What does this fold into?
Amino acid sequence: MDSLISAGNSIAPVGKKPRNHHKQRRKESQSDHPDATLQSIISRTKLSTAPSAHPHIKNPKLRSHLSRITQRAKDAKEQIEDAQLLMTEEKGRIVTEGELEKTWKVTQGEIVDSIGVEQAKGRREWKLDGGTYKARYTRNGRHLAIAGKLGHVASFDWQTGKMHAELQLQETLRDITYLHDHSHFAVAQKKYVYIYDQSGLEIHRLSSHIEVQRMEFLPFHWLLVTIGNAGYLKYQDTSTGQLVSQHRTKLGSSRAMCQNLHNAVIYLGHQNGTITLHTPNLSTPAVTQLSHLGPVVSVSVDPNSQGRYMASAGADGRVKIWDCRNWKGCVREWMTRGTGDPELEWSQKGYLGVTTGSSVNVYSPPTITSPHTGIPPLYLTHLIPHRPLTSLRFCPYADVLTTGHSKGLSSILVPGSGEPNFDSNEADPFESKKARREREIRSLLDKIQPDMIALSPDFIGTIAEPVKPHHPPQDVPFSRLPRIERLKISGKADLAEENEATDSEEEEDEEKAASGSESSEEEDANDKPSEKRPIRTKKEKKKMRGRGKSLARYLRKKRKNVVDPST
It folds into this structure.
C-alpha cells in the first residue's frame, strides 16, 4: 500500500500537478521525433574552435586573415567536389569494334546518320564570296562572328540561324573577335580597330591601334589585346576606354597570337622563330623561347591541362608540342603533309586540330603530349577542297569544328571535343536577356586588375619570402683595383710612378701631422683663457703655372715610347 501511495504522489495536494510535467512531455516528444532540419544544420555547421592554420605568425590580425583565406580555399575545393556529382553528362567519342577499324576512316556522313537531329545541325557549309574568312565564337558557344578579307562581316546565332548584324565595309579585314558577349564585337580593319554593337552600328574607333594583325579579348580583365605591323602589343580596357599599356616587342609584325585561359598571358609567334609570353605589367617578355628555324605561323594553348601544354606551327610545316612548366624542349614533333601554312587550335577536352593543305586533321589526347617521336595517331580527318584554310575554331560546349577558307566556312563534327557540362554562372548557352544583363554587371564588378596577370596565378594571397641580405664578395675584382695595383699585378708598374705615389702619401701624412700640431696648440690656448688667441689670416695659395705632376707624367710616358732617345 505504501508503494502505491508513493507512486500516486499522494503527499502533494490533489488539485496541483507537478511543475515539470509539460517539460517532461516535451522532452519525450522531441526525443521520439527529432527535427530533421536541425540535424542537417548541425551536421553542416562548422565551429570556429579549430586551430589556426598559421600559428607561427604573431600578428593576430594577419593570422586571422590568412586563416580565413585558407578556409575559403578549402571550402571552395569541397564545393567543387560536390558540384562534380551534378555533372552527369559524359563526353562522346568514336569507338571502333575491332583493331582493324580506324576512327579516321569514319566520314562526316556516317557521323551525321548515327547521331540525333540537334547534334547533326553542327555539320554545315556556308558558301560566301568575301575572300578568306576568319571566325570567332562567344564564350558560351552560341553565337558566331565571321569576317572576310574583302570586307564582309556578320554576327549570328548559328544554332537558330538568327542574324544579328551583317555589314559590307568595302576594305581589308584582318581579324574579328567578340568582347564580353555577343552584344559587342571588334573588327581589325585596314588601318584602325572598330567596335560595333549587336545591330551593326559603329560605336568606337580605336585610333591608337594601327594596322592590327591579330586580336584577343581577356574576359575576366575586360582587356582587348592587339598586335600590329609595327610590333607594338597594346592592352585596351573596354570598360573604361583607357589604354592600359603598350609594349614594343622589337621583333616586327606577328602572325600568331593566342591567350592562356588559365593565367591570361599572351603568347606571340614572331618571324624569327621565337615565341614570347607577355603580361601588361612587364615591358619585356616574361619568357622568350626559340621554337622554330623559320617564322611562327600559329600558336595555341591547351585549356584542358590548365595551360600546361602549348602547340606551335612554323612556316616549314613542322608542328611542335611544348611543356610550359620547364621549357626544356619540345615534347613531341612531327611534319605535316600538304602545302600552305598550318593552323592550330585546342578544344576544351584537349583535342588538337591541324589544317594542312586542303585537309583538317584532329588528334586526340593523351597521345599528343606523350614523349614520342613521329606523328601521333590520327583521330579524325576531313577533306576541304577550297584553299587556303585560314582559320580554325572549336565551338565551346559543342562537338563542332569550324574552318574558314576562300569560299566561306565549313563546320564538321568532332565527337568528344566539347565540354558536355557547363556552368550557368560563367557561360550559359541558354541564357535569357535578363540573365545576360545580370551576368554582365556581375562580371564588371568582379573585374580583375591588369597588374594581377602573371605566369603563376597562385601567387595572390601568399606571403612573400623574406629577402636575404646581400653580402658583397670579399675579393675585390681586378677592374676595381687602383691603377698602381693593377700595373703591379700585370707586371707593367713604373718605379717613378710608385715613388710619386709614395711622395704624395708622405706629403699628405705631413699635412695631417701639421694640422694635428696646430689643433693641439689651439687646445693649449683654450686651456689658458687669460691669453688672447692671435687672429690667423688665411694665406693665399700660389697657383703655379707650368709643368705639374700630370703633365710631367704625360711627358715621361711620351719619352718612354720614343725609339731613339737622342731625338
Remarks:
- DSSP finds ten helices and 28 strands in the chain.
- The longest helix spans residues 495-527.
- Residues 96 and 102 are 7 Å apart (CA to CA).
- The chain has a mean pLDDT of 82.
